[in-house]
Design brief:
The structure holds two protein chains of two kinds.
Chain A: H1 2-16, E1 24-25, H2 26-29, H3 31-36, E2 40-43, E3 47-48, H4 55-60, H5 64-69, E4 73-74, H6 77-86, H7 101-107, E5 111-123, E6 128-139, E7 145-156, H8 180-196, E8 216-217, E9 221-227
Parallel strand pairs in A: 2-4, 2-5, 3-5, 7-9
Antiparallel strand pairs in A: 1-8, 5-6, 6-7
Chain B: H1 2-16, H2 29-39, H3 42-57, H4 70-80, H5 84-97, H6 102-113
Helix pairs in contact in B: 2-3, 3-4, 4-5
The chains are: A alpha/beta, B mainly alpha.
């Protein structure tokens, strides 16, 4: 009996790790996305309201991987950034409240991903980075907001990035050119994106496209503490 | 009986939080793209090109297909290095792999001819 209780409580703990307090299905949270069935995403240049001047372009470069991994077609990020700069559309602030039809014509995209970096603060003493980022997916055809989440994320850099995964030891020629602080910068962005987009409804290239609608959506605004071990 | 519980335990353990295998493998894309943005020199361009090549040659994701944007961005970097033919070939490969890129790539090719 004791053993049975132990097993049950172990299961309880295990399962509770995967649920949120007030479960809402992805279908009810992101109904518009399931109905519109968008295929392609244009990543807009991030809106940077933080004091970290470098944040804009670097953060931009970390967004295509998670969106593609979720099953969407992502408009090529380097190429589209170049075109946006040439067409003087580098400041996404100007386009947030206006019709996006022109972007549809040039890029052929269904969704525009706006991101707002509200805060990107480093606290040297505690080796922590505090970021506040808002993610907004808008329909290019209707201007409707189909997905939005805002994260208040404290990232603990004191845990070594280790020698595993994508940030493993770089033994090749470029190793010398990469500065560790820089890698950490990308690491913070990557982890914020991964955590936030965990509940993004799958795109058409995903095996769970449309069938993930019964899964639980995360809260619109969240506060979390993460470190480099987060996958 | 004990074994049954153990079995049940493991089944639930693995079903509750399964992580899907990634659709694509990206090699060292994150460092390479950051590095290129930061330095924009010959070395960082070379590293980015090698990374794209690796993503194309050794695609280990479940789709076994080059991820969105890789051919086109590779082509863009080649164009920056004045490798016009190779660059355009890559842009066209993007359209071949992902027809939804056609509108954009056609516009880019038009801009190149101007």
């Amino acid at each position: 009996m004791k053993k049975l209780l132990l097993v049950i409580s172990a299961l309880g703990i295990l399962l509770s790790g995967c649920t949120t307090t007030a479960p809402v299905s992805k279908f009810s949270a992101y109904r518009g996305l399931y109905e519109a069935r968008p295929v392609s995403v244009l990543i807009m240049p991030p809106i940077n309201r933080s004091t970290n001047v470098e944040a804009k372009e670097y953060f931009h470069s970390t967004l295509n991987v998670p969106i593609a991994n979720a099953g969407y077609y992502v408009i090529p990020p380097f190429l589209s950034m170049e075109i946006l700069k040439r067409e003087s559309a580098f400041d996404s602030e100007l386009f947030f409240d206006v019709p996006l039809t022109k972007f549809g014509e040039v890029f052929g995209a269904d969704l525009a991903l706006f991101t707002v970096i509200h805060k990107w603060d480093k606290t040297g003493l505690l080796s922590q980075v505090y970021v506040e980022i808002e993610y907004i997916l808008k329909s290019i055809a209707t201007n409707e907001i189909l997905y939005t989440r805002k994260g208040n994320i404290t990232y603990d850099t004191s845990v070594s990035t280790g020698a595993s995964g994508v940030f493993g030891a770089l033994a090749d020629i470029a190793a010398s050119a990469i500065n560790t602080a820089a890698t950490k910068y990308v690491d913070v962005a990557r982890i914020c994106n991964a955590y936030t987009f965990k509940d993004l409804p799958a795109g058409k290239y995903s095996p769970v496209y449309l069938t993930d609608s019964t899964q639980v959506a995360g809260p619109k605004e969240f506060t979390v503490r993460l470190n480099s071990q987060y996958k | 009986m004990k074994n049954l519980f153990a079995l049940l335990f493991f089944i639930l353990l693995f079903s509750s939080c399964t992580v899907q295998q990634p659709l694509y493998s990206w090699s060292k894309y994150e460092q390479a793209s950051y590095n290129y943005l930061k330095n924009s020199d010959a070395n960082s361009a070379q590293f980015l090109i090698e990374t794209y090549q690796k993503i194309i040659d050794k695609q280990e994701g479940t789709r076994k297909i080059v991820p969105p944007g890789v051919y086109a961005d590779y082509g863009f970097i080649l164009l920056q290095l004045d490798k016009e033919e190779e660059g355009k070939t890559m842009l066209l490969k993007e359209v071949e792999t992902y027809p939804e890129s056609k509108v954009f790539i056609t516009n880019v090719l038009k801009m190149l001819e101007q």
